[in-house]
Amino acid sequence: EYLHMLDLVHSIDVVASGSEGKSRKRTIFTQPGLRYAQAEALITSLVQDETFRDLGIKERMRITDRILGEIRGRMMEDIILLETALAETGKRVCVLQFATGEFDMVTFDPENICCRLYEIKHSKEIVPGQYRHLKDNAKLREAEKQYGEIEGRFVIYNGDPAAREEIQYLNAEDYLLGLKP
Hints:
Elements lengths: L1 H5 L2 E8 L6 E7 L3 H16 L1 H4 L3 H31 L4 E6 L4 E8 L4 E7 L16 H11 L1 E9 L4 E3 L2 E5 H7 L3
Parallel strand pairs: 1-3, 5-6, 6-8
Antiparallel strand pairs: 1-2, 3-4, 4-5, 7-8
């Protein structure tokens, strides 16, 4: 039990949609602060680069903000994927990838042959583009073909719970606190 706490990485399947059935592993850091510390070190190194310093201040800030924003978003995805996989032991937790786009998380219940589809966003705002894949009928048909009936479609984000066009918005902290260990 204690040795598990020392593991620094965990793997989540990234499944390709369609009949090819290809999948790969996504490595998740169980201590996401390590990834953020690495990103900060990269930013520090980048800021000291002579070519980077030749850019205007607005461009430098845009680039560093974008890098850190992407890292925060990936960290949030990793935390939610990992905690869900650890809590939902009877379910398969994966990422479902399409030719264009993906469902950030799918929880598949093999006993009842059903699934839930999720997008994970590091944002407090509700924006229709966040759930475009959850409204894409071709992607929904493919998910049903692979995982059975879709029980729900969700966006996990940092804002207040809400609903938009049959999509449930869940607060990330509430979602994580609601997972059963």
